[in-house]
Specification:
single chain; 6-stranded antiparallel beta sheet; 4 helices; globular
């Protein structure tokens, strides 16, 4: 998955917004809250970051191509980075990004979820 694929997929999810920040990272939000980041790393290939469940966080950090997200995970947040997209399938990445979107959206107030058409 390259950054164009990443951005197109995130754009397809409900009620998302996009901003470039933090050194030109591709930052995707739902209800003003970040759910996915692309490019937040100095590397040759794409680096993609997303929020996970606690169980997925502990599972994925041991899998090839994944690691705890720099900065975020060191502060106790359950965020994972795909640092090698060549060993992780696009469908798997999309599934984790969808789950991140759901986790973040479910943390919004019911009022905001309703305003955004998420419930």
């Amino acid at each position: 998955m390259d950054y164009d694929d990443f951005n197109n997929f995130c754009k397809s999810l409900p009620s998302t917004s996009y901003v470039k920040q933090w050194g030109d990272a591709h930052v995707w939000k739902v209800g003003g809250k970040v759910f996915a980041i692309g490019g937040w790393e100095q590397s040759d290939g794409p680096a993609l970051v997303f929020k996970t469940s606690e169980a997925d966080f502990f599972f994925l950090q041991e899998e090839d191509g994944f690691r705890p997200a720099p900065y975020m995970a060191s502060r106790g947040m359950k965020w994972i980075q795909v640092h090698d997209v060549t060993v992780v399938g696009d469908d798997d990445i999309k599934s984790y990004i969808e789950e991140s979107h759901r986790i973040v959206a479910s943390g919004l107030t019911k009022k905001l979820q309703g305003e955004l058409g998420l419930i």
